[in-house]
Every structure is written in structure tokens, then in C-alpha cells.
Design a protein that fits this description.
Oligomer: heterodimer
Number of domains of chain B: 2
Distance between the termini of chain B: 10 Å
CATH class of the largest domain in chain B: Mainly Alpha
Number of strands of chain A: 10
Structural class of chain A: alpha/beta
CATH class of one domain in chain A: Alpha Beta
Strand content of chain A: 25-35%
CATH architecture of one domain in chain A: 3-Layer(aba) Sandwich
Helix content of chain A: 25-40%
CATH architecture of the largest domain in chain B: Orthogonal Bundle
CATH topology of the largest domain in chain B: MetI-like fold
Number of helices of chain B: 12
Structural class of chain B: mainly alpha
Number of helices of chain A: 9
Number of strands of chain B: 0
């Protein structure tokens, strides 16, 4: 498929995936279709254990579907190495590396560890409040700062698509609200396309432009909604009168 | 985030910590002196026959005698060399085997039962075979030391490598890391505490191996002195060699502990 102006950044077309164990085969994803537009923030929600993380692993090319097609700008996902930045539930900073060395880790791995790329990555860290902490070790920072450092590390190789796997779930509620706001600001500021999976409906409404609702396992698309809060920050969205209406609608669709 | 100004409360806390550490050090020395005192007294008053238990003063005299006739450094040097050589080979070869087994799951599954059997085998059973293969010199003793330490090194390091955080491996894979990059950037650095732990265990194993080796085949060394002292009923010599062994083993352990301090950052 050739790229046209309408070609989505990421697309799932009729994707199936199954886990195999000695106990048998478990269908985790069934006939999943969705696409991600340039610069948009999409959230994927679904009942616990429905296969949200599997969807993200498929998008990152860490797992291969047994049927269907996953494409990045029209090209198969397996040919798209280096286009993704993956952020996990915990910050996963390496404790023996300073924040500076953690941030440049993807550059070392991707063999892009040039002076210019390092400078660019470290300037991001400075821009988003980590400039004074570059020589610190992860255990010397608060949970919120560690998560910010993890996001800067994800952004360091300048990925086209950010894949966020419940990146705030390990934080306490207050820190989660603040970090959520920070992360939203950084992703918008850097004009990145992002795919977030979360079990938290409020988090999805407060961050996303569109929300994809998945069914119980095997995961398939139940609904896709345009939220229409683009100009508002996550904290502002939470105060909006429409917020609770969206929450109720999505809660019903989850059918937990 | 270090606070240069220390409050009165914090200064008191630091003083208490310092005092506690000094008390523990003094108590440790006290226990040693007490044991030596009881031992000396028991021998001097002949509550227990000094021929059987020797005494600290007789042990000191024996060490001085060995020093004077020039054999102390010879025997200590022999055992130390055999122990260090066996230790170094066991640790490096063991780590290398563990790396190979981490790299290949299939190899791990094939060799697992062999490792379990070799680990359970009393190495002393191989004594006659070792003498036939290597003679009764240092080579046989180094081999025995390697034999005793290597499986411990393999099992410890393999455990450390396999305990690498799966999420961190996923993170590196998402960055496009190769298996070699996962090994060098994550698996080896995260197994460093395990490596130090393995060194500590292998220190003890190396001394067990070298002394066991000297028991079965040697013409010099502390193990030889112990066997010789036992055969001619010179318990002073047995006790002296044993105490020297204690000091050397403690010194080697202290060096590993120092390496741990230098290599591993303690959390703030």
C-alpha cells in the first residue's frame, strides 16, 4: 500500500491474535479494526484482561497476528522499526544508570547516539523540568518525576507513534492527576501521535481525542467515540459538565 | 538533594548511629577476646588437656616458629595461589557457562539434569580420579577447587540472569534491541548484585576445595600442615594452620565486600 495524505499513521485491519500454551489456544484479539490519525491521541479501554496490552504489543510489532494486517503509514509493521516509543505501566528506569544515561538509552540501542541526538534528548529533559536532575539516579526522584523521565526517554529517539500502556497506573491518585496533565502537555507540545491503553475510563476521557471501546476477550471493537475536548487540558476536562456523561456512556458500553 | 545544614535532631541521630556502630565493633572484638581467654584459661588450668585443644599462646608460638624457619610464607603462599587460581577459574568459567545457558533455552533444558547431578555429587569422590589425571601437585588441587566452586557459580549466575525484569526486556525489545544488547545493557548489569553474592559464596567454596584437595594430594600448603599435624599429633600445628585459614578466608571475603561497595550503588 502506498502512502497518501489520508493514509492513517497506524491501522489494524481484521486482526486476529491467539496465545498458545500447553493447556491450549486462547483467542485474545478477534477481527479488530481501527486506525490512528496523524497527531491524534487515541485511548483504548476495555474490561480487565480483555487484551488491551496485547493490542499494544501487536502495534509495536512485539507480537505478530495470525490473521489480518497491521500497518504503519501503509507499510507492514515489521518494516517499521524505530517508529514507536513504548511506555509501560512502571517507569522501568534502569536503577544503575543516571537519568541522563536512562534518557539516551534508546539512542544507544538504536545506534543513533550522536552528539546532536543526545543534545536534542537532553534539551527535552531540560524543557520539561528534569535539567537539574540529569546526574541523579532514579531512586533519588519522586514517582512523578521518574514517570516524566520515562516519557522523555520514550521521546528521545523522536518516534512517530507513542504507545502508552497504562503509564499512570503505578502512581498514587494525586500524582497521577498531575503527571497525566504533564504528560498530555508534553505529547501535545511535541505534536506526537499517541495510542494509550487504560482500564481507567476517567483517564481515557481526560486525555484522548477518540476512545476505542473493546469487548471482553477475545477483544474486538465495540464502539469508537470522538470526545471533542481537544482544546482542554486533562484537569479542565475533568471539570467539564460533559465529563460525567461520557463516563456513564462508556461505563455502560464496557458492560462490566 | 543533599542538605548541607544539619539540624540538631539529625546531628543527634548521626551521633547515635556512630555510637551504635562503635558498640558493635567493640562487642565483636570482645567476643573474640573472651573466647581466646576461655581457651587459654582452660588449657592453662588443664580443665581440658592442652595436648588435645592446644591454646592461643601455643598456637602463637607455633606460628612464630613457622615464620622463623621460613615455612610459613611457603605454605600460606601455596594454598593462597591454589585457592585464588581455582576461584578465578570457577567464577569466570561458571559465569560464561551461565551466560551460554541464558542465551539458549534449549541448551538450558538439555543440561539442567546434568548440572543438578554434578551439584549433588560429593566432589571428594573424584579424589582418586583427580590424582590419576593431575598427579599430586598443585594442578590437582586447583582442579578440585574449580570442581567445588563452578556449579555454585553457574547456578547462582543463571538464577540472576533469569531473574531479569521481564518488563525491562519488553522495553528494550520495543526499542529494537538485539539479544546481545539486551544481554549487555540489561541482563549483565542487573545481575551484578547476584554476581557479588556468588563471589561471596565461591570464596568459601574455593577454600573448601583447596583444603580438600590438599588433604588428598599435596606436599605443601595449609591443608598439608593440618593433615601432617594430625598424623604426628601436633595439635598446635593443626590449630595454627586452621586459624591462619580463618584469617585468609576473612581477608578474601572482605575484598569481595569492598568490591561490592565500589561496584554497587546503595540506594539513597
Amino acid at each position: 500500500m502506498n502512502e497518501t495524505p489520508d493514509t492513517p499513521v497506524l491501522s489494524f485491519e481484521n486482526v486476529y491474535y491467539a496465545y498458545h500454551t500447553k493447556g491450549g489456544e486462547t483467542l485474545a484479539v478477534r477481527s479488530l479494526d481501527f486506525s490512528l490519525r496523524e497527531g491524534e491521541f487515541m485511548a483504548v479501554i476495555g474490561p480487565s484482561g480483555c487484551g488491551k496490552t496485547t493490542v499494544l504489543s501487536l502495534a509495536a510489532g512485539l507480537l505478530s497476528p495470525f490473521a489480518g494486517e497491521i500497518a504503519v503509514r501503509g507499510r507492514p509493521v515489521r518494516e517499521s522499526a524505530g517508529k514507536f516509543g513504548y511506555m509501560l505501566q512502571k517507569d522501568e528506569l534502569f536503577p544503575w544508570r543516571t537519568i541522563r544515561k536512562n534518557i539516551v538509552l534508546p539512542l544507544e540501542v538504536g545506534k543513533k547516539n550522536t552528539e546532536a541526538n543526545r543534545e536534542k534528548a537532553l534539551s527535552l529533559a531540560k524543557k520539561y523540568g528534569l535539567g537539574d536532575f540529569l546526574s541523579y539516579y532514579p531512586d533519588q526522584l519522586s514517582g512523578g518525576m521518574r514517570q516524566r523521565a520515562a516519557l522523555i526517554r520514550t521521546l528521545a529517539p523522536d518516534p512517530e507513534i507513542l504507545l502508552l500502556d497504562e503509564p499512570f497506573s503505578a502512581l498514587d491518585y494525586q500524582t497521577r492527576l498531575t503527571v497525566c496533565n504533564d504528560v498530555y502537555g508534553i505529547i501535545r507540545g511535541e505534536k506526537k501521535t499517541a495510542l494509550l491503553v487504560t482500564h481507567d475510563i476517567s483517564e481515557a476521557i481526560s486525555l484522548a481525542d477518540r476512545i476505542l471501546v473493546l469487548s471482553r476477550r477475545p477483544a474486538t471493537a465495540v464502539a469508537l467515540h470522538e470526545i471533542g475536548f481537544e482544546a482542554m487540558t486533562p484537569l479542565e476536562r475533568r471539570e467539564s459538565p460533559c465529563f460525567s456523561a461520557w463516563f456513564e456512556k462508556l461505563w455502560k458500553e464496557l458492560n462490566i | 538533594m543533599k542538605n548541607e545544614q544539619i539540624s540538631a535532631g539529625h546531628a543527634a541521630f548521626l551521633r547515635r548511629e556512630k555510637k551504635n556502630a562503635a558498640v558493635i565493633r567493640a562487642a565483636r572484638a570482645g567476643v573474640l577476646l573472651l573466647l581466646l581467654g576461655i581457651w587459654e584459661l582452660a588449657a592453662a588450668t588443664e580443665i581440658v588437656d592442652p595436648f588435645i585443644i592446644s591454646s592461643p599462646s601455643r598456637v602463637a608460638a607455633t606460628v612464630a616458629e613457622l615464620w622463623k624457619n621460613g615455612s610459613l610464607l611457603y605454605h600460606v603462599g601455596t594454598t593462597l595461589w591454589e585457592t585464588l587460581a581455582g576461584f578465578a577459574i570457577a567464577v569466570s568459567l561458571g559465569s560464561l557457562i551461565a551466560l551460554t545457558l541464558w542465551w539458549s533455552e534449549r541448551a538450558r533444558k538439555i543440561f539442567e539434569p546434568y548440572i543438578v547431578v554434578i551439584n549433588s555429587l560429593p566432589k571428594i569422590a573424584l579424589g582418586p580420579v583427580i590424582i590419576v589425571w593431575f598427579g599430586s601437585g598443585s594442578a590437582a588441587i586447583v582442579f578440585m577447587t574449580v570442581l567445588v566452586g563452578i556449579i555454585v557459580a553457574v547456578m547462582n549466575m543463571l538464577g540472576g540472569f533469569l531473574a531479569t525484569d521481564k518488563n525491562k526486556i519488553t522495553l528494550l525489545r520495543s526499542m529494537g534491541a538485539s539479544k546481545l544488547q539486551i544481554l549487555t545493557k540489561l541482563v549483565i548489569p542487573s545481575a551484578l548484585p547476584q554476581f557479588i553474592g556468588m563471589l561471596k559464596v565461591c570464596v568459601g567454596m574455593a577454600w573448601i576445595g583447596s583444603i580438600m584437595g590438599e588433604y588428598i594430594a599435596s606436599k605443601a600448603g595449609l591443608g598439608y600442615l593440618i593433615v601432617y599435624g594430625g598424623q604426628v599429633f601436633r595439635l598446635d600445628l593443626v590449630m595454627a594452620a586452621t586459624l591462619i585459614l580463618c584469617v585468609l578466608a576473612a581477608g578474601m571475603y572482605a575484598l569481595v565486600a569492598l568490591a561490592e561497595k565500589l561496584l554497587i550503588r546503595s540506594p539513597k
